[in-house]
Amino acid sequence: MDLLTPLTLVIGVLVLVAAFTVAARRLLDLRFGTIRTLLAGTFVLLIAGPLMKAFAGTVAPDDPGVTPIWFFILAVVCALLAGLVPLVIAEALIPSGSLPGPLELAGRLRRHLTRSRRYLRITRILVRHGLGPYLRGRDPDLGASSSRARLARSLREALDDGGVTFVKLGQILSTRSDLLPVEFVEELRLLQDSAASAPWTEIEPVLVAELGGPVEETFAGFDREPLAAASVAQVYRARLRTGEEVVVKVQRPGIATVVEQDLDIIDRLARSLERRTRWGRAFGVADLSRGFADALREELDFRIEAGNMAAVAAVSAGEPVHVPVPYPELSGRRVLVMEWLDGTPLGAAAPGGQDGQDGQELARTLLDTLLRQIMLHGVFHADPHPGNLMLLADGRLALLDFGSVGRLDGSLRDALGRLLGAMDRGDPLGVSDALLEVVPRPDEIDERGLERELGRFMARHLLAGTPPDVQMFGRLFRIVSSHGLSLPPEVAAVFRALATIEGTLARLAPGFDIVTEARAFSLRHLTERPDHQRVRDEVTREVLSLLPMVRRLPRRIERIADAAEHGRFSLNVRLFSDERDRRHVTGMLHQVLLTVLAATTGLMAALLLGADTGPRVTPGVGLHQLIGYNLLLVSAILGLRVLVVVFRGNR
C-alpha cells in the first residue's frame, strides 16, 4: 500500500498535467515546449487546491440553497487562467523552439569555441597587416594610386596568410574589376592557389572511401607522387585496368570542415562591415560573401564539376577546343577521374603558341568558342585564365578546371545580345533599355540620367579610331552600381569571363583585338542565321500557338453580341478566388472577432461585477457577480488568444 500511494499520486499528477496541456493548446491554438508546459501545469496544480479551499470558504456549510459546484468550476478556471498567463508571456519573450536543447546547446558551444579561435587568428592576421582600422569602421583611403597600391598589397598578404578560403576569396575578387580599383585587381591576381603536397598516407583514405575499395582494385597503376598540389585538391596520374591513362583529382582530407568554418567567419565579417562601414554598404559585401560561399561549396563537390564538364562538352561538340572526358562512375564528391591530356599548360607555354603555331588563329578559336558557348548555348567556362587552358600536342586548345561554369537562359541571352548590339551601334537608348532588361529593375530609377551617362561612356570608348579594351566593362559596371542597379550573378560571370579571357588572348597573340574579333563573330553568326529566317520562325511559332484561340473567336464574338442585343450581357467578377487571399481575410476576421468578443465579455463582466442587485448566491456574492466573474475569466482567455495570434503573426 505504501508503494501504491506515491505511484497513484504520480499518475494522477501526470494525468492532470496532460489535461492542462490539451486544454492550453486547444484554447490558445498553439503548441508549447515540453518543459514550459510541465512547469505551467505544475503551477496550476499547486494553486488549484488553495483556490478551491478559498472559494469553498465563501459558502456557508448550513446553507442548503447554494451549490458549491459553481465555485469549484470557477476555481478550476481561475487556476487554468493562472497557468495560461505565464505561458503566453514566455511565448512572447522566448518563442517555442528559439532555445536549443541540451545536446544542441553543447554542440553550438563547441562550434562557437572553435569558430572563436579561428576568428581571433584571422583578426590577428588582419591587424598584423595593417587592416585593423578598416574593421573598426574607417573608410579606406582610395584617393591616391600609391595609397590604393599599399592597401591592396596589405590585403593580398593578409588573404594569403588566411589560408585556402581567403586565397579563393582573393582570386574571386581579382576578377571583379566592376567593384575594385585596378590596383586591387592587379595585386590580388598574384595570389596563387598552391600548397605543399599532403603525404600519400593522408590522401589514400579519401580515395578508398570514395572508390569503395582499395586503389589497386580500380587502377592498374597509380603514381603516388602528385602532378600538382593546390590548397583544395591534389592531382595524380593513373592508368585504368582497361588501359586508359587518366588524371585523378583528390580533395585534401578535412578541407571541407575548414572551409565551412572560414565561410561562417567571412559571412559574419561581411555583415558586420556592411552594417558599420560606408564602403561595406557601397560594395554590398554581404551579397558578395553569400555568392562566394555558394560558388566555393559547389567547387568542393567534384560531382558538380563532372556535370559541368559534360555540359560544356555537349555544347562544344564539333568545336576545335577539346574538353576532357570525365569518368562519372569512378568519381564522387571528393574524387574526380578524367581523361589524361598530352600537352603543355598555357601558363607554362611560350607566348604566341608553341612549335610555330599561329597564335592569332589559336586566340580566334578560343574567343569564338567562348562566344558560342555564351550567346548560342548559354553554358560557358567562366574562368578561362591561362592556368585553365592547355596547348595539346596535336595543336588544339583544351579547357581545364570546370569548377566555375556559367549558365544563361534564353531570355537573358537575348537581352544580353541586344545590350552588346546596341553598344556596337553606339545607341545609348538601346543600351539603356537592354540593360534594364538584364538587371533587376528597382522601383525608382533616373532613366534619362542613365541614358546620358551611357552616351558619354560610349562616346569615350566606342567612337571610330578609339582603341577598344575590355576594361570598359569595369567602367560600365560602375555606371550600373552608381544608379542603384545590380548585375545578376549570371551576367557578372559573362563579363568576368570576357575580362579574364583578354589576358589569355594577349598571351596567345600579343596585340589581339578582342572587340574587333567579337564583331566579326557577330557578323558570322548573322550570316549563319539571317534575321528574316529567325523572324519567320518566331512568327510561325506564335501563329501556331494562337490558332486554337482564333478558331473559337468568331463563336465567342457572336455569343457576346447576342447577349448584348437582348440585354443579357453581364460581367462576373469573383473576389478572393485565390485560396491564399481567402486564408488571409479569414485570419484577419478571426482575429477581429476574438478581439471584439474579448472586449465585449470584459465590459459585461465589469458591469455585472459593479451591480449589487439580483438574487444572492452567498451572503457576500450575488448571482450577477458570479456571472461577472465567469465572464471576466472568459474575457481574459480570449484576450490571451488574441495576444498569441499577434505574437505568432509577428514571427
From TrEMBL:
<keyword id="KW-1133">Transmembrane helix</keyword>
<dbReference type="InterPro" id="IPR011009">
    <property type="entry name" value="Kinase-like_dom_sf"/>
</dbReference>
<dbReference type="GO" id="GO:0016301">
    <property type="term" value="F:kinase activity"/>
</dbReference>
<feature type="domain" description="ABC1 atypical kinase-like">
    <location>
        <begin position="191"/>
        <end position="427"/>
    </location>
</feature>
<keyword id="KW-0472">Membrane</keyword>
<protein>
    <submittedName>
        <fullName>ABC1 kinase family protein</fullName>
    </submittedName>
</protein>
<feature type="transmembrane region" description="Helical">
    <location>
        <begin position="592"/>
        <end position="611"/>
    </location>
</feature>
<keyword id="KW-0418">Kinase</keyword>
<feature type="transmembrane region" description="Helical">
    <location>
        <begin position="37"/>
        <end position="56"/>
    </location>
</feature>
<keyword id="KW-0812">Transmembrane</keyword>
<dbReference type="InterPro" id="IPR050154">
    <property type="entry name" value="UbiB_kinase"/>
</dbReference>
<feature type="transmembrane region" description="Helical">
    <location>
        <begin position="626"/>
        <end position="647"/>
    </location>
</feature>
<dbReference type="InterPro" id="IPR004147">
    <property type="entry name" value="ABC1_dom"/>
</dbReference>
<feature type="transmembrane region" description="Helical">
    <location>
        <begin position="6"/>
        <end position="25"/>
    </location>
</feature>
<keyword id="KW-0808">Transferase</keyword>
<dbReference type="Pfam" id="PF03109">
    <property type="entry name" value="ABC1"/>
</dbReference>
<comment type="similarity">
    <text>Belongs to the protein kinase superfamily. ADCK protein kinase family.</text>
</comment>
<feature type="transmembrane region" description="Helical">
    <location>
        <begin position="68"/>
        <end position="89"/>
    </location>
</feature>
